[in-house]
Amino acid sequence: MCGIPVRLIRLGFIKNVQMKKRIALVGIYHESNTFNKRRTGYDDFENSHLLTGAAIVEQYEKAHHEIGGFIEALDKNAIELVPVFYAEATPGGMVCTDAYQRLKQELLQLLEAVLPVDAVLVVPHGAGVCETCPDMDGDWLQAVRKMVGPAIPVVGTLDPHANVSVQMIQQTTALIAYATNPHLDQRQTGIRAAQLLNRILLEGFSVKQELLQLPLSISIEQQHTNAEPCLSLYREVQEAAGAARATHVSIVLGFPYADVHEMGSAVIVIAGQGLDTTQLMTEINACFIKRLSQFRGEKLSPQRAIDQASQGEKPVLLLDMGDNVGGGSAGTSMFLMDLLEAAGATKAVICIHAPATVAALAGLGSGTRSVVALDALNVLNRAQPYRVTVLGHYKGHFREPDPRHGGQVQYNMGEVALLKTELGNLIVVTSLRVPPFSSRQLSCLGIELEGLNWIIAKGVNAPVAAYRDICPVMIQVNTPGETCADITLFDFKNRRRPLYPFETITGNETGNLPGI
C-alpha cells in the first residue's frame, strides 16, 4: 500500500484523490494574415499573453473567454484541471518559423511533464499559419495527439474565423466554435466544450466528429451573426441539427485573409457514434448554397460612406475594413482620417500603430506643437504632414470588464501619444497593436466619446459590440489595405477550387460531404 494507512483508504479519502480525472489545458492562438508581410515573432506573444501553469487560471478564470468557461464548467468533484501552456498574439502576419517551433516545443515539454492525463482541453484559433507550416493549428494538435496517445479525449474550441483543416478534425475528439460574431459567447463556448468533456469522461459518451468544407468563402462584412444572411442561416442549421439529434453543430465562417488550402467556410458536426448524419450534412450544405448571392456583400466606398453619414446622428462609427487590426492588418492606415480632414470634418478620432512616431514624440510635453509625417507608415497615407499639438503621453494599459469580442480583460497598447490636428481631430498613436474590441481603448485616455462626430475603428464586426451603446450610426467602409473586403482582389495561390466568389457555383456542388 506504499505506506498509506489502511484506515484512510477505508474512509475513502485516498480513493477519491486517485479517482479524480486530470485534464491538461494547452493552446497556441493566432489569426494569421498571409497578406501582411510583417511576420509575427515570439515577442508578439510575449507582448500579449504567454502564460504557464497557475497564471493561466489567474488571467482567465473571471474573463469572458473560453478558458474561463472551461474552469467554470468542469466537474470539480471528479476532475482536476491542470493548466499547462497558453500563448496568444494579436492577429498579424504569418508566425515566424523559429517563434512557432519555440512555442510548440515549450508546450510539448510542459505537457510531457504533467503526463499521464485523462484528457486534454485545447485552445487553437483555427486560422494560425506559420511561414513553413501552413496548417499551424493542425500541426500542434497532431503533436499533442501523438504525445498523449489515440485513446485520450482531446476537446476544444475554435474561433468561427477558423479555416478548418481535415487534420484539425482528425487529431481531436471534438471542436466547438463560438456561435456569435462579434464573439460574445466565448465563455459560453468554453462551458459547452467542458460539459461535453464531462460527458465523455464521466458518462462514457462516445462521439464522432465530421467536417463539411463548403465551396464558398463568406465575405467578412456579411459575417455578423445578428444580421442577415447569418441570422437566418444559423437558425436554420440549428433547427436541422436538432431534428437530426446531433450533439453539436458549429458554423465556421472562415478567415479569408489566409492563403491556405482550407480557406473558406465550413461546418463541424459532433454526434453520437451510432448516429447517421448523411442527410443532415446534405441539408446543411443546401442551407449555404441557397444563400450564395447574399454572401458577397455590398462594398460601400469611403467617400460614399462619409457623404451618407455626414447629416446623420453623431457620433458615427466608420468601420475601416481595409485596415482591420483584428484581421491581422498593420493598423497604420490614415486613409479615412485623411478623407475627413480633406472634407474639413471635425471631432474625429483614429488609432494607429506607429512605435517610431511614439518614440520621436516622447520628449515633447503636453501643449507642444509638432509636425508628424505618416506617409512612410503606409502607402495609402497622404504625403502632406500633419501639424499637431501633443495632448499627452500615456501608459496604454486598460481593462474591459464587460463581454466583448475576444473575451480579454487586460489590454496593453504600450506607450501612447495623443495628438490633436489643427482641425481638432484626434490621433492616438500606439507602440503596440491592439484591435478596437473595447471603447476603453479611447476613453482610458480621457477622450469623451459621446462628444465626437466620427470614430474610426479598424475592424468590421468586432467593434460593434464595443461601440453599439455610443454610436447610433455604424458604417462598414470598403477601404483598401491588407484586409480589403473584396477578397477577389487578392492573389491566392493555395486556396481550394471552385470557391465562391472566385468561381461560379452552380448549386450542384456538395462541398466535402462525408459519404457523398
TrEMBL record:
Any one Pfam family match given in the protein's UniProt record, by short name: DUF1485
Domain of life: Bacteria
Domain Microcystin LR degradation protein MlrC N-terminal: 22-309
Annotated transmembrane regions: none
Residues covered by the Microcystin LR degradation protein MlrC C-terminal domain: 318-494
Protein known as: Microcystin degradation protein MlrC, contains DUF1485 domain
Species: Niabella drilacis (strain DSM 25811 / CCM 8410 / CCUG 62505 / LMG 26954 / E90)
Lineage, uppermost ranks: Bacteria, Pseudomonadati, Bacteroidota, Chitinophagia, Chitinophagales
